[in-house]
Sequence to fold (232 residues):
Amino acid sequence: GAVVSQHPSRVICKSGTSVKIECRSLDFQATTMFWYRQFPKQSLMLMATSNEGSKATYEQGVEKDKFLINHASLTLSTLTVTSAHPEDSSFYICSARDRSGGFSYEQYFGPGTRLTVT
Amino acid sequence: SQKIEQNSEALNIQEGKTATLTCNYTNYSPAYLQWYRQDPGRGPVFLLLIRENEKEKRKERLKVTFDTTLKQSLFHITASQPADSATYLCALGDNSGGYQKVTFGIGTKLQVIP
Fold:
């Protein structure tokens, strides 16, 4: 089945530093990847949609200069949280859509990255 | 504004019984609806998708219904097992803005008691 990995699974960083999170599709090509954020006891909130080779589309209220997304290849997307602050502490999850077999609504999620900013 | 409602309180049922989870939505006309399972500290796992023109979908012990008039989906797990204990997310998808966007509910935590 389609597998999506994320690295790192957990990261603790100091306020003001930047953190990069990688999302990889291991056995399929993902033309579209999504980045979500989930706070405790809340739903997944879509942050941005990225298509390989083009700029990401950010949801309203998400700062594109703070959350940098790069979808450089069909198997890798990265999210960089720049100048992180404690309020950025959250669970970040990526997902990918496999389009190789034609159109599909199914998203495959990564295991998530727990970011703690101290 | 668009709203998705799931019972945020935990649902406790006895092993072997059928668990029924509810997803209601307002101010939304989804093209499809999905159900996901999420375990603590993990990403969601896709379970079932049902389109707006479908009434019911089944997969092994799982059954999903979709009533676009009532704006409601029901998710059933028959012969429930302790391993089914998890949070179940309802997600609505549409094709607005030229790309497929999925909006998630808060999820319902299911606890199957042995």
Q: What stands out?
A: Chain B is about 0% helix and 55% strand. Chain B touches chain A through 23 residues (CB under 8 Å).
